[in-house]
Write a structure and sequence with these properties.
The chain is mainly beta. The longest helix is centred in the C-terminal third of the chain and has 5 residues. Helix content is 3%, strand content 16%. It is elongated and about 60 Å long.
Length: 189
Amino acid sequence: MAASYQDETFTKENIGAAIFTNAEFEDCVFENLDLHQADFANAKFMDCSFSQCNLSLVKLGGTAFREVQFNACKMIGLHFEQCNELGLSIGFEACNLTNTTYFRLKLKKTKFLKCLLTEADFSSADLMEADFSESDLGLAVFQQTNLTGADFRTAFNFQLIPEQNKLTKAKFSVQGLPGLLGHTGIKVS
């Protein structure tokens, strides 16, 4: 039988040999943990938060994240497209999300605040009304991505080809024009 946890706080002191595979976590807090390369296969996280954790290269096959917040976490190389899409609801603030993949995911209204999203792949994702405030999107891939109403006003280093994405009512600042026009060879200064 899979382990089930509710209203618990996990820290270095009490994480022990916790097994995440197939486990259920509800209203739990994870703080200052090194979970690098952990196996979260088929785990369920509901109304949980991760703060200052290293989650790089965590295995996410079938993982369910429902109303889960990540704050100041290192999450390099994660394949979010392997998550259970049913009820998927995640938010990020001040996280390192380098080389993460969101292929074909429905992430409407997701907040990526002050995040490092270099080389992230958002191909074919639905990011309607997503918020990329103060995030670095250097070399991030947007192809066939629904960015309707997305907020890029304070995002930087992004390159978007409008013809390859849905940008209706997306928000950009004047400083973001090079990211929209760079592929055309037009110089904006």
